[in-house]
Amino acid sequence: MLTAQTKSGTILNLGKEYNKENLADIRSKEVFFCPACGERVSLKLGTQRINHFAHRSGTVCRDFYENETIYHMKGKLQLYQWLVWQGIPAELEFYDPIIKQRPDIVFRYGEEKYALEYQCSPISEEIFIKRTEVYYQQNYNPLWIIGSKHIKAKRNNIFSLSNFVYSFLRKTKDNQLMLPSYCPEEKQFKILSSVRPYSTKNATANITHHLIDKTEIEELLAPQIIHYFNFFKWSLEMEKFMLNWSLHPNPELNRFLREIYVNNLNLYLLPPEIGIPSRRSLFIQTPAFIWQTYFYLDVLQNKIPKELIDLKEVERHFNKRILKNEIIIRRVPQLKNEKSFHAVKEYLFQLEKLGIVIKRSETVFQLRSRISIPKSNREKEERRKEFYQKYGSLLEKI
Ligand SMILES: [Zn+2]
Question: Are the CB atoms for 118 and 104 separated by under 8 Å?
């Protein structure tokens, strides 16, 4: 950690400028205490490592703060100095006794009080959600920033993202979804946007780089988002994933294959209308081609043109699948007002563009034409080709 209390109760903040000689001098005359647990801590000064305070072994607090890596401390320090440099009132490792939490940085900007958590080591979903909720209850605006090393690019615009990474998704001031990360080595923010998962772990996304020296807080809270999305590329990745997935039997796959088999479907002959992304499809962890197949089976398969589709009915089926663990939703703590069912609604809007359904009212759609299921690989390929040509750019717009 970067702050400690002295005997007289003042806080020594290593984020403010202290040169090493000064600190060595203070260290020879002072004792230091952890502001959170009150135990003695020692001031570590080094040429390689960054100056920091450390608990002695065996303290309860230790695991909490000591697992802090240099990477984390460096980043926290840089973020703190970055805020101070902009004249923003900020406190490093401010211990709030009411919530018994110590966010990395607390700062005030505009009308808001922010709790900035720069997280570099994975924590459980439960802890993440709990901390976030406590912040909301105490009128903090939580701002979680992940260490960039967790953002793994597989190829250009293709990322491998764990559920831990997805937890950092938040909304920009103008309601776009973004995922902020920071790298203390490169001294830059890396912001992901337009995240479109094609499998549980993999997604296409855009990434923008913002050097900390050239970035102001406003640019982090409301960054210019690139809306670029390539549907063709996404589909190719999804197909590749689907093929690979089908070659490695697992319970999820077996259950899915069994169900589509009894319904005369074949994984390799799914129509192009099944397995398309939308802005909110990331709120469902189950890959789009799976939950959209379930949607087809539950809602569309037995309907004839002109028949009505009630959203309540759709939602009921969706919730049933969730209860049976056939569809898994993704929990995104900083976006608790977003419902995974919105992704299903967006899918219906996509189907409207494709001429499959028509919106009749806020809650009712009508089937316009049935989705035809390809009967051979050749037919499937032809349908796909035609589909991309006709609808590719249309589907990139949501
Ligand atoms: Zn402590």
Answer: yes
CA of 119 to the centre of ligand 1 (A): 18
**Integer Cα distance of 136 and 297 in angstroms:** 40
What whole-number distance in Å separates Cα of residue 358 and Cα of residue 63? 56
H or E stretch covering 109: strand 105-109
In order of 11, 110, 235, 388, 390, the CA distances from 39 in angstroms are: 14, 36, 56, 64, 67
Mind listing the pLDDT tens digit for each residue in 174-196? 889 999 999 999 999 999 999 99
Rounded CA separation 271/380 (Å): 7
- In angstroms, what is the span from residue 380 Cα to ligand 1's centroid? 62
Question: Which residues face 372 on adjacent strands?
Answer: none
Q: Which residues fall inside 5 Å of ion ligand 1, going by CB? A: 34, 36-37, 61
How remote is the CA of residue 256 from the centroid of ligand 1, in Å?
49
- Chain segment 200-211, per-residue pLDDT in tens: 999 999 999 999
Q: What is the CATH number of domain 69-228?
A: 3.40.1350.10
In angstroms, the CA 298 to CA 292 distance is 10
**pLDDT over threshold 60, residue 263:** yes
Q: How far is the CA of 36 from the centre of ligand 1 (A)?
A: 5
Domain ranges of the chain: 1-67, 69-228, 231-395
Tell me the HSE value of 145 on the side-chain side, using a 13 A CA sphere. Answer: 27
